[in-house]
Design brief:
Layout (H helix, E strand, L loop, with lengths): L6 E3 L7 H13 L5 E3 L25 E5 L7 H4 L13 H13 L20 E8 L29 E8 L11 E6 L5 H13 L17 E5 L2 E4 L3 E4 L8 E8 L4 H12 L1
Antiparallel strand pairs: 1-8, 2-3, 3-4, 4-10, 5-8, 5-10, 6-7, 6-9
């Protein structure tokens, strides 16, 4: 499989810069609604089971989630602009989601008649801000369909197939700038049994989180940087940098019914 089967950069087709400062402020304003996530279950050997005690470096709070459902409307944002977007988007997060969906012809388009008054999200889709703490231990390869849950671990009945990563702040460790992320993917590494077996061996050996390794490489490995990046969760993926000096904030849109190929086909057609 080729690199494009696991990751693709759409940064040249949309400028996220006008949204960044307001989204960072929205995170801060809504901090009381943030949920701590046990993302370390990915590397437990049995991600479908209830996670045990977290290893040092992967404690609760090393990853945090703020769903758009839990973001309060900002009255000042609704009235700030005098243009055609005025009184449509309750926050910059909502505006970015709406405009990304429109630009790339993504599933479940926003109904602008109801959007200012009632946030709705399709059952097979999630929208959330994701914060990865700078003090977390290294973050090995993830594999969503093996996880027993969404990438944000909030719905154990669904497995995300792909996701759109939109860095907001704190990504300078990826080597470009504050809102350009970098991810490493393995397009042909899709076997959940061997994936879980690798991590079970580390669990059985009482391995410290800082010493965890990726599963043995199967096929090719690629790295991609970008400001709007689509990633296939049905193959192994992780952030490229493995040590951090900043908390990294990212807006994510994920799908559990639409595959990476489904979403990429829509996005490619929209920008052709």
């Amino acid at each position: 499989m080729a690199k494009k089967d696991a990751i693709f950069d759409y940064s040249s087709h949309f400028d996220t810069e006008p949204y960044l400062a307001d989204i960072t402020a929205t995170w801060t304003t809504n901090i009381a609604n943030v949920v701590n996530v046990r993302h370390d279950r990915q590397w437990s050997g049995d991600p479908s089971a209830t996670p045990g005690t977290a290893l040092a470096g992967w404690e609760a709070g090393m990853w945090k989630n703020l769903t758009v459902w839990d973001i309060a409307n900002d009255p000042s944002y609704l009235t700030r602009d005098a243009g055609t977007d005025a009184k449509i988007d309750p926050t910059a997060v909502h505006r970015l989601i709406r405009n990304i969906k429109t630009t790339f012809n993504l599933p479940n388009p926003i109904d602008t008649a109801t959007w200012p008054d009632q946030y709705l999200c399709a059952a097979d889709e999630t929208h959330f801000l994701w914060l990865a703490d700078k003090d977390r231990a290294k973050e090995p390869m993830a594999l969503s369909f093996a996880s027993g849950g969404m990438v944000n671990d909030l719905d154990s009945d669904k497995h995300t197939k792909c996701g759109l990563f939109i860095p907001i702040s704190g990504w300078s460790d990826a080597g470009v700038d504050d809102n350009t992320g970098s991810w490493t993917v393995r397009p042909t590494a899709t076997n959940s049994t061997t994936y879980n077996s690798h991590y079970q061996g580390l669990v059985d050996a009482s391995t410290a989180a800082a010493s965890y390794t990726d599963p043995t490489l199967v096929g090719s490995e690629f790295t991609q940087a970008g400001e709007i990046v689509l990633i296939n969760f049905e193959s192994q993926y992780r952030p490229t940098p493995q040590s951090w000096t900043e908390d990294a904030l990212t807006l994510m849109i994920t799908w559990s019914d639409d595959s990476y190929s489904d979403i990429k086909t829509l996005m490619d057609a929209a920008v052709a």
